[in-house]
Amino acid sequence: MALVWIPSNMRHLTGGESRIRVEGSTLADIISSLEANFPGVREELVRDNLIKDEIAVAIDGEQGHQGLFQEIDDSSEIHFIPMVAGG
Amino acid sequence: MAKVIVNAVVNGEPVEFFCEPRQSLLEVIRDVLLLTGTKEGCNDGNCGACNVILDGVLVDSCCVLGVEAQGKTVETIEGLAGTDGDLHPLQRTFLDLTGLQCGICTPGFIVSAKALLESNPNPSEHEIRLGLSGNLCRCTGYDKIVLAVQEAGKMLTEAKR
Amino acid sequence: MSTTIERSSQYKVIGKDVLRPDGVDKVTGRAVFADDVHLNGMLHAKVLRSPHAHAKIRSIDVSEALKMPGVRAVVTSEDFPPIPEGIVKEEGAAFFALASDKVLFRGHAVAAVAADSPHVADEALSKIKVEYEVLKAVLDPREAMEPGAPVLHEKLNPMSFGARLEQHSPNALQQITSMGDIEQGFREADVVVEREFTTKTVHQGYIEPQSCVVDTAPDGSVTIWSTCQGPFRHRDNTADLLQLPQNKVKVIPTEIGGGFGGKEVPYLEPMAAILSRKTGRPVKITMSRSDVFEGTGPACASYMRVKFGAKKTGELVAAHLYFCFEAGAFPGAPVGGAVGIGLGRYKIPNQLVEGFDVVVNKPRTQPYRAPGATQIHFATEGVVDELCEKIGMDPIEFRLKNVVQEGDRNVQGVPFLRIGGVEVLEAIKNSDHYKTPLEGPNRGRGVALGFWRNGGGMSSCSISVHPDGTVSIIEGSPDLSGTRTGIGMQAAETLGIPFEDVRITVVDTDSVGYTMGSWGSRTSFATGWAAIEAARDVNLKMVERASSIWSVPPEEVEVSDGTFYHRDDGSKKFTFKQLAARLNATGGPVVGSSVVDPTRGVGPAFAANVVDLEVDPETGKVTILRYTVAQDVGQALHPGMVEGQLEGGTVQGIGWALNEEYFFDNDGQMRNSSFLDYRMPVALDVPMIDTIIIEVPNPGHPYGVRGVGENNIITPPAAIAAAIHNAIGVRMTDLPMSPGYVLQALWQQNGH
């Protein structure tokens, strides 16, 4: 099962848990499983069936850009991080 | 506003132009003569991007009126390279030693450095820093500009021998 | 100036100081910047700005201005189409459509006049009558967060500078991240240091003011020549505000005279487009220097509270960082980024970062080279320096003990790939500078470590191969400092051809695919990657062509270093030039193209500084004696330009540390909006900057490239503060450390 790191601004939804093991072969599956156990997660991450513009998804430390279709390995670590820019 | 006729020598060529008495020399150079190599950074004499040489004296052209050029010679960045495209030693060293980044201040620095080297062909680092302290560069931190001026000074001195 | 660089020269083009292709134009005055664009029939416009920091607009009467001879048109917010909510995606972009019901800062654009000359336009501004109802302004972020403070906006958009923030109070958004348990952490600490810090508003200080020429055609389509960092953002914002399809707005980026984050948004283009539509003529608007200071986005001021706890042996165990960034009139200070990198350089098991984005009645801030990082490092490195003093540990040893390395996790929990923190610290430790003792009264030495994540994102590129074997590359990243050179070098390296055979051009938004702006130290990395991919596409297509010319399967043809050859048959071989000459006759030209959004690691990077300085106890003036910067650049594409980045960023940091600040009066008016009074370093203010280029290749990039541009501004204020402490024994907690402040600190220390 993939390991999802829950950002601190979402931990109120997971009862304070910061790392959760989740079943799923795509990012969409992962978010669905999370939502089933922790209602509200989807709303934090998804808008109009797309990962929100302001959120970047890192799979094993590398940013993925296939959105919800991103494939996930069983051993993957998943991070949701804020998109940020620069000068 | 009524315009006046001004006669001057710009980069070696006699020119006659119309300008409003309120127009700065910088405006005349850029908007009337269409020599846009001379830049406006502040329009109040604090950045040196508009440096030109007026009758042998370095000036901030934003602080000189166009009508003041009457009967005078004006040297702008466009006048430095030879007509066959040969670069002035300062232009060469700024290029070779990476003495520029964005390039907006570069014409002003090169004109300013030309005036400096004409009065002091072999300046020390401190003399270069002092001589160029009327010019602002926000990209380079000045290292490579100082080196480029030093190197060009050497080249000019060599050439005179 | 003196440069140390250790490198393996595994590349033919990369790593050489090639001649930049735009260089001759820039030293001869031929290069065309936005204000150099001159179109037939062109009008000149000027912008009327609010004299109040916070006021309701009761009425605007432009009739007298329109009667002036030579005045052609006036634009106010009423000329803009109503903007449906949510259409303008960029936070705060709505204000490029001119103030409507309220002005929110002094300098807020209210109207603009187009006239036959800039002088007439200027005169006409004084004929526009605006009736204001002045409101109470709030200028301090801490006051703005208090109950009862004047409220700027009915609703704050939680999307703030690309990060999602929560509403905290009417004028503030917040973002919080945490790891471990800080209370437990501080209990475990042997030494705890807690301090407050502030920094003032500073400006990017690019020498070229904002400028554009806009031509609106009778069919409504808009062509924009602009000095901008991100032509596509300019296009999208302008299309949003004018309610036009994106393909009816074309942005042609001119050469750009510096940006540093300040030229990311279209302050002038939308209003110029309307003036052009009204007059049927092209319209130029160029800001004055005071417009630039008062009407564009400087870098945010800040209030920060930092508490760090460490063991006697030097390990950091807990950290609490609380900061308020002053966003200006609209939210969007770089809080998200600062939360992400604020403590990112050290392994701290227990940490809490609380960031606030606070709106106040001042110009809406913009990024400035590593946005947010300089402020945060000034505070956090200051506390680290004090911890080192209390523990009695060498500041470099302390940092070596705590710096993150490969496999350590950042605050979001993402593990670092190979990263060069140890290398930059070792480089400073082993530098001639650090090994040379500093002597003399009132002299001090300071070190600091800086960390920046760098950026990635979308870029596009295409490469045409010509029959003579030269190529043309087009890309969409405005070149602020020489990036087109580094991008072209990556393409030449991949194609195996000399750099001289490459011509690279930055083109308009119709001519290349979407490319994010030149910001976030992303350009050489991401657009360079696009150039690599386009070159690989060229190689692929040329391999196919060679295979069809030789009538062999493509998998039997290989390419290496610009030579195409059959893997078994030595007689079948083409140089790049030979094959290029055959292309048009064997199936047509080859054009390679790419769109990338790098999916692998953007390489974060470190810089370390050591500085020697002298404080004049009579005047408080600080003189920099010697400065060394070591930065991990991954792979230096063009060492001369890389040094230039390190030197330039460091000098900007020195200006921020010692001199630069906006002086606001109680009414929110900036009182030093000229280069005379807002004093940036000149050549005489600084010494040569010694640079040490460290190359720890970024495993995420084909040539190991990491972003270079921003990292170097981060550390100077912190290093200089440490050196001042070392010189006179005073902890400096506010920027700038100008002579008056240093003198005051000295007097306080001496019991005055």
CATH architecture of the largest domain in chain B: Roll
Structural domains of chain A: how many: 1
Count the DSSP helices of chain B.
5
Report the principal-axis shape of chain A: globular
Number of structural domains of chain B: 2
Q: Give the integer mean of the pLDDT values of chain B.
A: 96
Rg of chain A is 12 Å
Portion of residues in beta strands of chain A equals 25-35%
What's the main sheet of chain B like? 5 strands, mixed
- Strand-pairing-aware structural class of chain B: alpha+beta
Q: What is the name of the CATH superfamily of chain A? A: Beta-grasp domain
SSE order of chain B in H/E notation? EEHEEEHHHH
Which fold name corresponds to the CATH topology of the largest domain in chain B?
Ubiquitin-like (UB roll)
**Most extensive chain-chain interface:** B-C, 62 and 59 residues
**Major sheet of chain A:** 5 strands, mixed
Q: Order of helices and strands of chain A, N to C?
A: EEHHEEEEE
Q: How far apart, in Å, are the first and last alpha carbons of chain B?
A: 52 Å
What's the number of helices of chain A? Answer: 2
Summarize the helices and strands and which ones pair or pack.
The complex is a heterotrimer of chains A (87), B (161) and C (752).
Chain A: E1 2-5, E2 19-22, H1 27-37, H2 41-45, E3 46-47, E4 50-51, E5 55-59, E6 62-64, E7 77-82
Parallel strand pairs in A: 1-7
Antiparallel strand pairs in A: 1-2, 3-4, 5-6, 5-7
Chain B: E1 4-10, E2 13-19, H1 25-32, E3 51-54, E4 57-60, E5 73-75, H2 89-96, H3 106-119, H4 125-131, H5 143-160
Parallel strand pairs in B: 1-5
Antiparallel strand pairs in B: 1-2, 3-4, 3-5
Helix pairs in contact in B: 2-5
Chain C: E1 3-5, H1 23-28, E2 43-49, E3 55-61, H2 63-67, E4 71-76, E5 102-103, E6 109-115, H3 118-125, E7 129-134, H4 141-144, E8 159-160, E9 163-164, E10 166-169, E11 172-179, H5 182-188, E12 191-199, E13 211-216, E14 222-226, H6 231-242, E15 249-253, H7 269-279, E16 283-286, H8 289-295, E17 302-310, E18 316-328, H9 335-341, E19 350-359, H10 373-391, H11 395-402, H12 421-429, H13 432-435, E20 443-452, E21 459-465, E22 471-475, H14 483-495, E23 502-506, H15 523-550, E24 557-560, E25 563-566, E26 573-575, H16 576-583, E27 591-596, E28 605-615, E29 622-632, H17 639-658, E30 689-694, H18 716-728, H19 739-749
Parallel strand pairs in C: 1-30, 2-16, 14-15, 18-19, 22-23, 29-30
Antiparallel strand pairs in C: 2-6, 3-5, 3-7, 4-6, 8-9, 10-11, 11-19, 12-17, 13-14, 13-16, 17-18, 20-28, 21-22, 21-27, 24-25, 25-26, 28-29
Helix pairs in contact in C: 10-18, 14-15, 17-18
